[in-house]
Amino acid sequence: MLAQQIINGLSLGGVYALFALGFTLVFGVLNVINLAHGAIFMIGAYAALHAVLVFHVSLLPAIFVAALVTGGAGWILDKLIFAPLRASRAPHLAPMIATIGVSICVTSLIEGYFGSENLRFPLDTLPSSTLTLASVQVNWLDVKIIVLALLLMGGMLWVIRHSSTGRALRALAESPKAAALLGVNVGGLFLATSVIASILGGVSGVLIALYTNSVFPHMGQPMLHKGIAVVIIGGMGDVRGALIGGFFLGFAEVLTIAYIGSNMRDAVAFGLLFSVLLLRPAGLFGQAPQRRA
Amino acid sequence: MRCRALLFILVFGVLPNTAAAQIKIGIAEALTGNASQYGVAIRKGFELAAGEIASSGGINGQKLELVIEDEQGKKEEAINVFKKLIFQDKVLLLFGPTLSNSAQAADPVAQAAKVVVFGTSNTADGITSIGNYVFRNSVTEADILPATLKVAAQKTGLSKVAVLYGNDDIFTRSSYDNFKKALQDLKIGVTTTETFAKGDVDFKPQLTKIKGTNPDAIVLSALVAEGAPIMVQARQLGITLPFVGGNGMNSPRVFELARDHSDNLWVGSPWSVESSAPENKRFVAAYQKAHGALPDQFAAQAYDAMYIAAQAMRKLKFAANLDADRRALRDALPAVQWSGATGPFKFRQATGRDGKPAGYDAVQTAIVMVTKRNQYVIQK
Q1: How does pLDDT run across B348-367, given as a tens digit for each residue?
Q2: In the A/B pair of chains, how many CB contacts fall below 8 A?
Q3: Which of A31, B61, B188, B366 suits a disulfide with B144, CB 3.0-4.6 Å?
Q4: Shortest CA distance to B261 belongs to which of A143, A8, A139, A128?
């Protein structure tokens, strides 16, 4: 039973980490708490579902469609909200409040158009084969989620650490003004970050919709709460932190259910979050005076 | 609100104070708002039954006149509409309201005015304890869940179960309370009780724990939104145990959301579209002809309620005095027995908050069904 719960913790943690990745990127670079990330996540799931239902494509092209749509949404988000607010030097809270508005609008629009009920992917599009090792059941989808979370994060870490774009991103995170003086295309990089973060959110939306096999307008809301917790545990804006924080929260929840009781799940998980903040106010990886992209 | 009432009168061709030889029946249901998916089905059930009664000679030659009002699924509006129907339209009896919540608020108005109020969809505890003018033919979960468990236990031989329920929703929690009581009464052991919250998407940790306690079945109090993924994830974890569900799981949506993982789910219901009783077949065919879609439980219960009230009205000798007629109807109603779309039915007197006899609940056998290859199969 413990072995099965460890697998459960890994796949749930992978889901949280994937969601938190895009969220933390926007915070690290744009310095915005993007509360529309849950809505983007939901749009990704609807886009992939629509691609499968209407155009009868298989899963991989559907994920590509979702990436395209959410990338577009990220572009609009930056052009419509982040860029004008940056230009007018709006206070920190303004973009956050604006993203709440975007989130509510988008969710209502989707609800109005597709209805509020649960939708699901047709059965034949899902990889349903399971791997049985001793008494442990592993779904191939779980394996893919875990591997994809690790790959995406590894890729992002490499880009940020070792590429010139990464260097520019780090400079940008430190000081947009200084970066601009050094010849970094600040507006373009901000836009690119918003697009990439939205694509990450959209793809994780598809994966989670597949994992739970349900798509509904408010699916982003609970994820957003967990995502904020993950990002805070890991350290705001830190990519490694999103990974560790995601698995930390996943395991905390699973082990609480296994050994304490499901009634206490959120109390224990968020109690731990609180204790981490008390001991390390900047999160596991955050370093208060410095910022990392 | 007056405008909307007028609109309904226009739409349904019902005008107040016309010919004297008409029996006025007030209908207050949620026709707009969140509860309208129930209220609209209920209205269709009433209209179908009233139409049939009219075309077979009415009530001893008198016509039925339906005065339909929208109570919007809101307590305040239900009270307003009740007052209008009782004092202005001077109806003989009232059907409605749609939600138990509204019934708690509005039924005392009818009780005080001494007018029969007949609910077809109120399942909460305590509605009929309001007073002796309160009737309902909606069967409560407190009656259905023990029957479901009993049949499931007989057929599958289960002796210990694990319980899984949503702990942040009033409906799934009250359904859990009823399950808990039924499990105690039937002396079925509980290996573990687990919970989840609205909006949860991953239930594998709870299911893994349940699997480790080796139950014979899983009792599940959930709405379909969470219940269907729970069934899918259980099957993915290799858990092939039967599920025993509350009313929240009694929906054809299960077959869409948990397709091919939906087998072996036991649910109880006061009505089933599959029921082969001749009265039900006739109802389903007539409803389909009128509306081009299959009826649901709410339409069936409303349809039966109109016939139950008609049985009582046939016994009345109408006087010129409305108060006397209203009282006579109340006295005639408890004795009515009826076999309709939902099967054999009679009333049972409930006790009030003061311990004295009060209103009347439904006595009806629950239909227990199990899912098999994406449909419900009735179990005897």
Answers
A1: 999 888 888 999 999 988 89
A2: 83
A3: B366
A4: A128
Sign of CA dihedral B44, B50, B53, B55: negative
Which residue from A202, A200, A210 is spatially nearest to A142, judged by alpha carbons? Answer: A210
CA–CA min distance A137, chain B (Å): 6
Q: How many CA atoms lie within 13 A of B241 on its CB side?
A: 29
Q: What is the pLDDT of residues B130-161, one digit of tens each?
A: 999 999 999 888 889 999 999 999 999 999 99
pLDDT of residue A288: 52
pLDDT for the residue numbered A105: 92
Per domain, the residue ranges of chain A are 2-224
Note whether B224 contacts A: Cβ–Cβ < 8 A: yes
Residues of chain B numbered 149-188 and touching chain A (CB < 8 Å): 167
Q: Where are the domains of chain B?
A: 2-139+276-363, 142-269
User: What average pLDDT does chain A have?
Assistant: 85
Whether residues B229 and A1 touch (CB distance < 8 A) is answered with no
* Arch. (CATH architecture) of B2-139+276-363: 3-Layer(aba) Sandwich (3.40)
Cα distances from B256 to residues A117, B224, B366, in angstroms, run: 11, 10, 24
Q: For A73-105, give the secondary structure using H, E and C.
A: HHHHHHHHHHHHHHHCCCCCHHHHHHHHHHHHH
- CB within 8 Å: B208 and A213: no
Across the interface, whether the CB atoms of B257 and A118 are under 8 A apart is answered yes
What values do phi and psi take at A219, rounded to 5? Answer: -65, -20
pLDDT of residue A126: 67
Instruction: Tell me which residue has tokens 């311990």.
Output: B355
B142-269 topology per CATH: Rossmann fold (3.40.50)
pLDDT digits (tens, 9 = 90+) for B207-222: 999 999 999 999 999 8
